[in-house]
Amino acid sequence: MSNGFIEQTEEVLLHTYNRFPVIFDHGKGVYLYDEDGKEYLDFAAGIAVSSLGYGNQEIAQTMKDQIDKLCHISNLYYTRPILNAAGRLAKASWMDRVFFTNSGTEAIEGALKSARKYAYSKGNGRFEFIAMNHSFHGRSMGALSVTGTEKYRTPFEPLVGGVKFAEYNNLESVKALISDKTCAVIMETLQGEGGIYPAEKEFLEGVRALCDANDILLILDEIQCGMGRTGSMFAWQDYGVKPDIMCMAKAIGNGVPVGAFAMTEKVAELSLAPGDHGTTYGGGPLVCATVDKVLEIFERDHIVDHVREVSGYLESELDKLVEEYDFVTERRGKGLIQGLVVTKPVGEISQNALEQGLVVISASTNVIRFVPPLVIEKQHVDEMIEKLKKTFAM
Ligand SMILES: *Cc1c(COP(=O)(O)O)cnc(C)c1O
Questions:
Q1: For the chain, N or C: smaller number of CB within 10 Å?
Q2: In angstroms, what is the span from residue 311 Cα to ligand 1's centroid?
């Protein structure tokens, strides 16, 4: 971790990240290895992406086989992988229609367009979005427009118009923003980047009821919290309310670049039609063969049940840290997406953890975020806590 690191890496990358001074080379299970062969226990999973861990030979073989058959063909044609992946994803997400994108951000873009088109077809003059403070939905102009952190938005204004921001978990603040121009409410079921805040049940139920009463669509962003992480396949499925449109990405491909937005038939009937939306690469056979295999493994290996089993242990071990350390003030989260609120600089903690052979990331400005591969076992929780304690002592 010398000062010469940057020169040594001959960095010409645009400086959009404060990268940690490590060059990762490969991974196996829940461990990562740098170029010097040093081992790291991974509690970040590439930001909630590599849920089945690294070096899964079944997934790798699926990809290799598909590379030999067909990598790209265009959405003008069907392939077996897109049909299989869409079928599995619709079933797992309890949605009727699926559109594959290349990223989470693009899934958000598609969801926003879907809502606008739905209102347009109805001719009800609605176009406004209500989004949430401290939300994160991506960096493109549309996704940024509904992202509730001002410092991300301000340099790029004017953004997409007609967006108002409510307080997350505050139903009255949503109610106050509803007008006869509101077309959709968009939010994460559990705010990730914003600091690991799960939606309260009454809040989500209340928003759903407000939407129903006013012919407003509910868009849930499950890009980070979905795909088994909270202990249900998608986080909202535990709440007893259903979104009209939902966004997925990150873990659905276990590392291949993929996202998706999905909707109910009611929305689909009046929403995007041929010519309204498209993508060259989205839903390509290589990516879809992978998504299909990942979903197959989730079902077959009961990954969601495993999350329910192991996450209670993680929660109780993290709670002990809140008891033990004055600068650790709170734990928040659900399943295997957890945050510890700290009063010490969280960037330094992540950096020091790397030296101890532990990968953890931050959320917001003061939260250590734990989003490990979903296949961790109790022994990995123990190992993480041990490394974290050493980190705290640095
Ligand atoms: C990561 C993330 C996005 C953006 O996804 P990308 O694949 O990086 O474009 C959007 N919403 C949430 C909640 C996310 O965590």
A1: N
A2: 23
Q: Is 108 helix (H, G, I), strand (E, B) or coil?
A: helix
- Which atom, in ligand 1's list, is nearest to the CA of 257? 7
In a mutational test of the pocket of ligand 1, which residue from 17, 50, 224 has the highest number of ligand atoms less than 8 Å from its CB? 224
CA distance 315 to 335: 8
* pLDDT tens track for 139-185: 999 999 999 999 999 999 999 999 999 999 999 999 999 999 999 99
pTM exceeds cut of 0.90? yes
Architecture of domain 70-300: 3-Layer(aba) Sandwich (3.40)
Q: Which atom of ligand 1 is nearest to the CA of 225?
A: 13
Fold of 2-55+302-392: Aspartate Aminotransferase, domain 1 (3.90.1150)
**Cis status of the peptide bond prior to 21, with omega within 30 of 0:** no
Nearest to 352 by CA among 1, 53, 49: 1
Query: Which pLDDT tens digit goes with each residue over 309-324?
Result: 999 999 999 999 999 9
